[in-house]
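Feature request, filed as a ticket because there's no other form

It would be nice if the structure record came with a short human-readable summary line next to the tokens. Right now we just get the raw output. Example of a typical job, pasted below so the devs can see what we mean:
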Amino acid sequence: MQRRGVGYINGWLSDSSCGQQSAEVGWMQEKALCIAIPPEDGSGTVDQFLRKLTNLEEKGDAAHLESNIFKTQESALQALNEAKVDLILLPAEVWATMNQHGLELAATLPRREATWVLISEDKAEYLPKNALLICPNRMLRRQMRRARIDIHTMSLEDAFDRFEKPQDEAWSGLVPWMEKLRGEGEIDGYIIDRGRWAAAGIRARRHTLGMHRGNPERAHFIPPTFSGLSVLLSRKGFPYERTNIFNDKPAEIAFTNELELWSRIPNSIRDLVGIHVEQRGIGTILREAEASEDLSLTESFMNRDGRVAKRGTRVEIRMETLNVNGKRTIAIERTGPLEYAYEEIVRTMLEWDELLAVALEKRPNKDDLTLVEQFLSPY
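Raw output as currently delivered:
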């Protein structure tokens, strides 16, 4: 596997960057697959991919792979559009929000752990009264208020106004800055995604903000949409069989279905809606249903003889959004056969629209703050 600059000839990589071609084998079959890697943004995308490349190299499967690290995401995209590279690596949420015509999904990497973590001495349930937390994600701030109404959560922007602003506002500087504030007692903790926490290399107690499916007594936190997902993009018409070595089918299903739901949500509240799609086995679902004493879910999988009626992998879809103080939640959970994932997505969106229409209608009492205003709050 090579990691160096790229050449360019007739829209394809030249043999100067990808190695000389064998006379006995067709040039198109042997040419190196060149992948543009933008700078690490702290999400863990680049680190995961480089570890994957190293693993392929150790197995001897990287002879025709070449990676090229670019200084900026824009220059990497330009190289792809100009056919100087074949693929570009991006976090899934970046691709979802981009307006890049002529590009399409080539592969989805295995999903990293999607849940975020609370860095503090204790779990959220045991933090001191009126604890102060920094959280960069608006939806997670509301989820924390739902868990503990007395906890004060602030955005990074509010923290900049309250405390001395760090010199380095990149994530490489923000995480040590928040940890310093916690160590000095200025805050009780902070919430961050796992990738940026791992990249910081700081040793401190962390607590998973999980979905806790089998433990309904605990506060649950659906992670922000696309959390833990990374994708490889190509120009239209690229032969996808060449990227099978990177593609993870469960992650691909999760991303494409989360993207389908996310794209149907109004721009104004997209960052307030958590969407999580996952493939799950029936056995796991039934064990969680038994632990939580969810008889309706258990019976939905059984026939009259008390046996599992329909076996096979299921797709689980979870969506939720909250008002500003976390007291009101609009949520949907659906589980259906994997082969009918698209039908489940359509049904989920129809039910979601109906719930929003009811929940966001104007109240007769003019003094009562409507959910519309609560949802559009900047906090």
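Something like this underneath would help us a lot:
Residues 15-109+230-247 form a domain with the D-Maltodextrin-Binding Protein; domain 2 fold (CATH 3.40.190.10).
DSSP finds 14 helices and 13 strands in the chain.
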